[in-house]
Amino acid sequence: MQPFSRFLLYFLAVARHKSIRKAAEDLHIAGSAINRHILLGENQLQTPLFERLPSGMRLTAAGELLYGCARRWVKDLDDLNRQIDDLKGVRRGQVDLLAPEALARTFLPELVARMKRSHPGVVLNINIRDNRRICPTLLSGEGDLALVLDPAEIRDLVVVRRLSFPLGFACCPGHPLARHAAARLAQCAAYPMIVPEQPLALATTFTRLVEAGRIDPVVAARANNVQMIISLVTAGVGVCFLSYLDVMSEVMRGDVAFVPLLGTEMPHLTLALVHDRTRQLSRVTHLVGTIMGDIMAQPVA
Questions:
Q1: Which of 3, 88, 246, 268 could disulfide-link to 242, CB 3.0 to 4.6 Å?
Q2: GO CC: one term (predicted)?
Q3: What pTM does this model have?
């Protein structure tokens, strides 16, 4: 059942895509039909909702007000549908989970596999986002649960579970550094390094540690993508400063060794499972949260 008028559906699509053409492609509707309904709506409200610009469609002040209301209506309808699903029991439904790319190879595949085994009728929609955008996206109503790294602002969030990962150096299993259970930065600096670059969050941490230790690393390469860095490590180019989360899969397979850094002030990477404090979670969302919490509770090293 679709309770919203065609005008509202078309309005939301145009506002989201900032283009009638892109909205038409998304909805598989003729652009002329979308434009006609938008014009009828503006006539009914007696105010323009969009500015027609050469670059596309931009919401007016009135359009911004309607867009905010419409998104709340959609969110309320989603909550209602989830409550109705709860009355039917956890046999079907869907959950939107936001997560950073770092989890694509570790926790998320196991979560999906467990859900398919225990509740095959539940669809898990995984949306990979830039870690910095995950919390704002969740609080805007575009997700039910989120996995976020080092959340800076948790006032409006409920933290279901936290998990910390040590920082250290990844290297080939046969590398001399791999013989150490842990090492100090000065020991690692004796070897060629693959330096993490922005926008990787570890780039800032690495720079801070190097400056504090007055270390002058031997740079073998620089990269701003974790998978590229791991590929360079396995190719024997050098060692690299990463978190255990980044290389957990490779360490478990024996492709990479990980040596935690020693130091009383050594930071850790924190992974948090969170949800919006103001939102009522459905039974199926609670179920997904419980299973994800169980996965996070397993030993990671």
A1: 246
A2: cytosol
A3: 0.65
